[in-house]
Amino acid sequence: MDHSACLWASLDLKLYPLRLFDDTPGRQGHEKETQSITFDELGCQHSPKDETGALVAELNQVSAENRRLTERLTAVCEKYNALRRQLEDCTSFNAHPPPSSAPSIDEINKKRKAAGSNGRNNHLLAIAGNSHSCSSDPEDLKNRLPKEEIAKAKISRVYVRAEASENSLMVNDGYQWRKYGQKVTRDNPSPRAYFKCSFAPGCPVKKKVQRSVEDQTLVVATYEGEHNHLPPFPQQEATSGVTDGRRSMVMTLGGLTSDSTGPATISLGLTKPKPVRVTTPTTQPINTPEFYKLMAEQVASSLTKDPSFTAALAAAVTGRFLNQN
DNA sequence: CGTGTTTGACCGGCGC
DNA sequence: GCGCCGGTCAAACACG
Ligand SMILES: [Zn+2]
To answer: Residue A166 contacts by C-beta under 8 Å, 6 or more apart in sequence?
Structure first.
């Protein structure tokens, strides 16, 4: 649970030095300027007198910045933990009151799983029960009525907007997916593809991928469930990877938006065709502290909604970090 | 030959 | 009860 601190640390570290979305060369940020020149100029000053003074000033600035980041990190972590507690309270509350008349999505899914357990869907039920999968007796699983487990496994639902290649719905997000179906839906002329996570055997995570109605160059991926394995190490082709000519993907944190209806959406840009930064919050100019604050809040809200997103995000961030080095 | 994709069939939920 | 629709299965197929 508290590995979130590590994640947040890496996140905050990324926000400044990498200058995401900050590819405008003429930029003159106030406090970020110290960030960008700090590491560049540390080794380039040769005046012996001024050098120590400059270095000390530099050090002070960096220390101050470090403190600020630490404070921000603490605040965000607290907020994250608070939201997480709130979420857990909500889920446990929803799972406990038995006579709740309004059937939730979880209940529907549960009913569906239970109904399908008398035949070929046994493995599905076992998988939905989280972790130790097929060895368990399906009957036992059914009797146990894994409300909380199923609810927990199903709540995380994240819409990921990604730019897909020409006419394929294959979105490379680091995990390994096996396609098991495709359907044309009513509200969207483009077909919807169904994937299961095959990165680890028995991983219950599914995703649906469909092109956006309004923008056919984007696909919307809906993730369901939590991975029962460690996140994949970010695909080596993430930033370097035009090696095999396939498309690759880089997470661009700026795409974080928050749907009013619930699911968080993040946008993934593909390095190959053109790094499009869709859904960047346009109300805020980038480079400003407010922008980063807003982004941090959005990241926090997104992370509280989907642990698998946490994993993916951490993987992507780490990958870029390694790649930079 | 093993693995992953395609695609038509099937199933259950839901509205009428 | 019937038809529609979303989700899933599994045989056929493609590919290395
Ligand atoms: Zn998985």
So the answer is: none
